[in-house]
Specification:
Order of helices and strands: HHHHHHHHHH
Number of domains: 1
Shape: globular
CATH class: Mainly Alpha
Distance between the termini: 42 Å
Helix content: over 70%
Strand content: under 5%
Low-confidence stretches: none
Oligomer: single chain
Structural class: mainly alpha
Number of strands: 0
Number of helices: 10
CATH superfamily: Hypothetical protein af1432
CATH architecture: Orthogonal Bundle
Mean pLDDT: 92
Radius of gyration: 16 Å
Amino acid sequence: MTSLIDEITRYVMDRSEKYRSESDDHYDFWNEHIRFVYREAVSLAQKYHADEEIVALGALLHDIALIEKVGDRKDHHLNGKILGSRILDRFSCPEETKEKVLGCILHHRSAHNAENLEELCVCDADILAHFDNIPMLFNSAFNQHGISLSQVREWMKNSFEKDYNDLSDRTKALFEDRYRQIWEIVIGGSF
């Protein structure tokens, strides 16, 4: 188990570094997003008694299409499933494990899409990672969406609400106090 996770971790870190060094935006997927998703996903897997290997691999590969610059952002879950299959084959991942990991990649965009506990862990972790790294959201507001500083509070409020609403009810319950604290600090005022 650990060997495959270690190999995929190294692969994703290497591909993230290649993206950072060669892309126009120099975004560091590993340090700005993937490592946060991985940490949150494994934590949720432990709390929910999900398969940690499936969750860890899904967390590592969920944004692989963005890292590899394949297709449009809106379809990165679809392209990620294709790329993930090739990568897992390259590392001799067992077929049953591979299919479950591919489900995590395909359904990671909202807990409402999750078909099992492992997919839910990856999906919720992807959202929680946005709250773990708030500077990444500011970067997204300015660089990807062209939001002016005067508009950023409203954009952040909308982003936070959307992300929170995409969480599973189970994770919302675990995260609610932290969400309220983040809301009060970043948005200002009460929840």
